[in-house]
Every structure is written in C-alpha cells, then in structure tokens.
Amino acid sequence: MSDISYTWRVGAMDCYPDFSGYVDYVFTVHWDCLSYYSGVSGGPFNGRVYSCTSVPINTGEFIPYPNLTENQVLTWVWDTIGQDQKNAFESGAGQQILNQITPPVVQPPLPWLSTGTPS
Questions:
Q1: Could you say which residues of the chain have pLDDT below 70?
Q2: Residue 1: predicted pLDDT
C-alpha cells in the first residue's frame, strides 16, 4: 500500500544540564513514527511505533536547546539509526494498518455460545 503516509515526531528529549560548558545538552530523543491510511472503507487507519534513541555526544556543532528544531533532532535520530532501521520502523507502523484492514488472526464467537440458551 503505497498510499500510507508517515509522520515522525519528537515527544521528549533527555539532556545533561551542563556538559562541557553547554547547557541542556541532548543525549536521548524519545520519538514516534505514525502511519495513516484512508484508502479503503472502514478507515481511516492508524499505526504507531515509538522508541528512544541515544544520540552521539560531540558530533557536529552544538545547537543551543532553544534553537533546536524538530527536523534537526529527527535528523540526529535518523543519522544514528540509519536508513534501513528507519525503513523498518515505518514498515512496522504500516503493518499495523494492514493488520487492521485484514486481521492475521480472528476470534469468532464460540459456536456453542451463540444460541444464547444455557445447557
């Protein structure tokens, strides 16, 4: 299903209050990857994968916490996890949608309970 859209979000960041003279130095990013699909009846359908990623310390130029953008922080996450893992997280969020549309496992009612009369 190529019509599934993905949105990555940063939910929180863990910071050292003071690291090598820098204030609020980010070392862990808590994020989620959301998937969305509305291409069939019964939708829209959503999926979500969430995790956290430790970002390397002392890589690149320090950006003061108030100047960070979500896109910059997500770039740190994607650079750290790599494209293959990014694709795997998106695939997992997309699979949740596919499982909603065509469930891999179902639990129909027990046949002996469907009559509504006690035995």
A1: 1-2, 58-59, 114-119
A2: 57
Q: Would you give the distance in Å from CA 67 to the centre of its chain?
A: 24
3-class secondary structure for the chain? Answer: CCCCEEEEEEEEEEEEEEECCEEEEEEEEEEEEEEEECCCCCCCEEEEEEEEEECCCCCCCCCCHHHCCHHHHHHHHHHHHHHHHHHHHHHHHHHHHHHHHCCCCCCCCCHHHCCCCCC
| Radius of gyration of the chain, Cα coordinates, nearest whole angstrom | 21
User: Can you name the residues that pair with 10 across neighbouring β-strands?
Assistant: 31
Token pair 């790599």 is found at 82
Cα 103 to Cα 26, 48, 57, 94, distances in angstroms: 40, 17, 43, 13
- pTM of this prediction? 0.80
Tell me the HSE value of 26 on the side-chain side, using a 13 A CA sphere.
27
Residue ranges per structural domain of the chain? 5-113
